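Lest this sound abstract, we let one protein speak, letters for residues, whole numbers for local backbone shapes, and leave readers to judge:
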Amino acid sequence: MLLLLLFILSINIQSQNWLKVDSVFSVSGVTVKNFSAPYFIDIDNDTDPDLFLENIDNKAEFFRNNLDQLPTT
């Protein structure tokens, strides 16, 4: 599963602009058991897949894909 996630993220890493959002979940966090579990879903309805990442040691994390806000060089 981790290799699949790394492969997906490495395909076009230059065009991805992920923003970690810490304020989505409650202060108590989300209890996650067993293995890491990435979920790609368009949570903000902007046609870009956002990432929810859960693992055994931490609460769930949310990364918003800001494809339209890529940094300029």
Summary: Residues 26-33 have pLDDT under 50 and may be disordered. The radius of gyration is 13 Å. The beta strands are 18-21, 37-41, 50-54, 61-65. The helical segments are 2-11.
